[in-house]
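Exercise 7. Given the components listed, write out the predicted structure of the assembled complex. Treat all entries as one system.
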Amino acid sequence: MRRNHDGLIDGVAIIAILLAAWQALFAYAGDVAITPPLATMRYLVTLLGSASFWPNVEATMLAFVEALVISTLLGVGLGLWLGLQRFAGDVAEPILAGLYTVPKVTLYPVILLLFGLNLSAKVAFGVIHGVIPIVLFTLIAVRNLPPVYRRAARTLRLTPWQTITTVLAPAVMPEIVSGLRIGFAVTFLGVLIGEMFASQRGLGFLVINGISSHNVRLTTAVTLLIVLFAVSANWLLLAFARHWSSQGRDRHELA
Amino acid sequence: MSRAAAVVWTRVAVIAGCVLALEIACRAGLINPLTLIPPSAMAAAMVELLLSGEINGDVAHTFLTVAIAFVAAVLVGFTLGAVLHGLRRVRRAIDPLLASYYAIPIFVFYPLLVAIFGLNNLPLIAIGFLAAVPAMVIATLLGLDRVPRVLRKTARMYRLGHVTTVLRIVLPAALPNLFGGIKLALAYSFIGVIAGEFILSSGGLGYGIAYAYDSFENRAMYGRMLFVLLVAIITNGILYTWEMRLNRRRGRM
Amino acid sequence: MPHASLRGVTRVYPGARPVHALGPIDLDIARGEFFSVVGPSGCGKSTLLDVLAGLTAPTGGNITFEDKPVAGQVPDGIGVVFQEDASFPWLTVRDNVAFGLRRSGVAAAEIARRVDYAVGFMGLRDFAQSYPAQLSGGMRQRVCIARTLVLQPRLILLDEPFGALDQQTRLLMGDEVLRLWRETGATVLLITHALDEAAMLSDRVGVMSARPGRFIDLVETTWPRERDSRIVAEAAFGVVTARLWSSLRNESLKAIGREPAPA
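Answer.
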């Protein structure tokens, strides 16, 4: 019980420190750089109430959800196959790891040329960011499945379908969810970057527009919204993943 | 042929096959030459740029920025990680922040960084630094966590002082994780700097690609793009191979 | 005068619910004897070793080694071989064995001499330049023993050093430890969960109760100093093992949460 309270106190303390640092940054750099916490939040509320703001949110979310769905299906599917086919997985892994470390922003012009200046370019850009960690995590999770699980399933005379749904899937879930968590974040990043470069709508567009027109209020408010969304979504997925993998952790230690 | 060799050769074949398919598709006119030029043309453009020295200024700019950001991230990240490792409650409080760090788009803070550091190269270095430092902190924490308790007990059996224990036992034991962190720090600082140059139009290789795109200079754009991709792949590949060798000697596959 | 002794030693792990892990323990270990400790899982055997070595401070009582109190740090003259593999994966076998000596300022020639001896004694000469990752579990434990051997300890503490090995290798490693004991003339304390191992190797065996561990029996074997694993052929071996088990069986049942059968 005491530990739960500690966690809450620490969490509140961290948020307070961050807000204080934000205020201090404002005091140091002035309103040509940033608007202070309270003013930003008030402006954000105004934005959320204004009709012209929401089309931007929609544009970003539409591209993001589409990119995420494609990344997940493609990523998990490819990862499963590569994890089960040992040889293919061994061949592919360094290639994927290498692609992960490449600055994908340099590929953006290619995507723009291929897809044109519209939604599908943003989606494609999100996908090339998100699909790689999802494939990698899924591949590693499936490959690292202890062979004894499959043997145990056979001694229990489970059908292949039962084996997959009741033994293998739960076993790889935690790792796959970790991959999805990272995929979620980088897909979002990809879509934002896409919007920053060649777009007329979206949250990323608002930020870059705000930068070039020196609309500090707008940039700070939209940045806050982006950060809040990214962090809370990640935190939710983390809690979800932890719940999944903590099942069975409360064992009674004997002796 | 051993399996390991078969894997490597298959990999080479897959990559070569993809490049070849792209080359054929472009040359056969399946892909619009205004959209994508054949890989051989990209390579030729890249060599031209390198030989003419046209790209030298950008290369120096980017490499210097990345180098500073990378070294700073490794040093600061390691120190932060080491300190945090000893402050258990602070670490527990910051953990969720660290776990979500990569989800935050750092370049949105660019205007703030410009206002603080001025319109020079520092904001870009800061972006590269901010992109890389969490990876180093996390890797340091993980590495220190994973030093087996029995090794610390062994240090006490030898009656080693605190400093000797850290230098001779803790750090060598944590080295694989630390090296992994260094590898990630380099990759992320490179990505951060290139992305920053690309979007925020300062100078350097990233900017060069964006400028070439805006000016419809496809050849120059693809030449530069190929160069950046090759630099990323080769440097990260070298570190990756080192890491494999290090892990193999220690029996961690 | 005993080589080491414990008086009223207890160890309680603090926390929201304190865990009384060990004690009270009263024990004298004679110089040059081979003493084993057996007991059910979790009874505090390893804690006993940690406390005796000075790796952990006792909550109560005191420990003396060669008439000097043990407190805070590991006294000079005590060597420990741990349960887990403690070899340094970044050093060769030779460098592993030499590690402690290099840190304690012994002359280079002397280091070379002692390392050569220990490496040869433990049968590692062909692997001196290998890394621990290239060796089997048993060989890695031999590296750890060699590493302790070069310090020329007068009291050697072994915490279930053969736990991870198969039975046949364990029996052979037992012979190695006996050889070590005879050649160095050191006092040996061995923690083990294997009754036959304790029975065949030791001069005396202490049987510990379930947690909190206390000694409930001290069995004397009367083996000659020159012995090895073939002592299992002796009738007395079966008697000793049977006695150990009869003391231990009820405690083990308690440890796994079952009620001991009425006598």
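Discussion: The CA atoms of residues 87 and 144 of chain C lie 6 Å apart. Chain C is about 35% helix and 20% strand.
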